[in-house]
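Human: Note token order:
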Amino acid sequence: MKRVYFKTFGCRTNQFDTQVMMSKLRSYELTQNESEADYIVVNSCTVTNGADVSVRNYISSVSRKNPEAKVILAGCGSHSKGEELFEKKRVFGVIGHSEKEKIEEVLHHTEPFYQIGDLEHIDTTIVEEFVGKSRAFIKIQEGCNFSCSYCIIPQVRGMARSHSEETILAQVTKLASNGFGEFILTGTNVGSYGQDKGTSLAQLLQKMSLIRGVRRIRIGSLEPIQIDDAFLELLDEPWMAKQLHIALQHTSDKMLQLMNRRNSYATDKILFEKIAQKGYALGTDFIVGHPGEDEKEWNEAMARVEALPLTHIHAFSYSKRDNTQSALMKPEIRGNIAKERHHQLTALIDKKNYLFRKAHKDALEVLIEGGKEGAYFGFDQYFNRIRVTSIEDIRANWVYLNGVTVGELGNEATL
């Protein structure tokens, strides 16, 4: 049998899409060794110019290491850079999002191909296993109706559209019966789920929670304006992971306006404080160094971050993305300034996370994800990484921990 290697870049949605492609293979063998692969499928990310560079560099590298392998470009990069890479013969084939469920027939091509498809497709595949994972990612929707100045994703993923509730629940039921207990809901814009189908994320969560075997549900990034009263009523449910990731992107109102965001600091602060009162850890996305972020805006933003009950952050320095409004904005922020601001921000959140962990003395429920030879790791209900020492192999098991040692670099426990 011919062997296929999958390389995944970017977000959890891409991780799910890779699992979809893996599940569709029938006459090919999966391999974890790219050097022995006959086909290398690159599930690409194109969120920034830097992401494109990473994908191109990988393709160049793997083509040198395994020149006989046929490289297939998939993912968001296929829509933004696929035609260019195909014309330059950097890849053997290109497939768009709507073609990934056809991966079996795609790999049968004997001649180079460009099969981009459309941006209206919705998957119907039910994935029964997640290779190499102890948690299951469940994609519940595709696309985004927002028009943030810095973002190209609506152009490469299409407009927001929800997967059918029936397919999602069947997916969760199957994975739960196969031993998965933690489920992470993912998508391009998770909070928009159901708006096109007359339902909502809250209703989906309630139905998921009734499935036997579901122990914990985590939710991917939400937009502040998408969190309604029905969702807030679920925060006390025991199956809800006690951490939410709510995408602010900035805390300066001027910067939010430049980014064409739909949130404001005043309403964000009220929302965060209401959720924090429920004992939740709170994470966010934050873009540092976006054009127009002068010293005044930065100082205001940092003071506001300090005032928010934040414990986690996905901070990244602004990277120009061609074909977006932000790419044309001035003045640009020098790289060394953005780097220093990034350091200030992450250091502040590290401190706030440490104080949060010290203040929460309740038992931790941890799903062990990996490790070996007595040293294991997993994430608790607050999405904090826990290192666990055990003489038994506890991978993929749930453990309950009291008396955890709280360190600045993480928590540790011994079984």
Observations:
- DSSP finds 13 helices and 19 strands in the chain.
- The radius of gyration is 22 Å.
- The mean pLDDT is 94.
- Residues 364-414 form one domain.
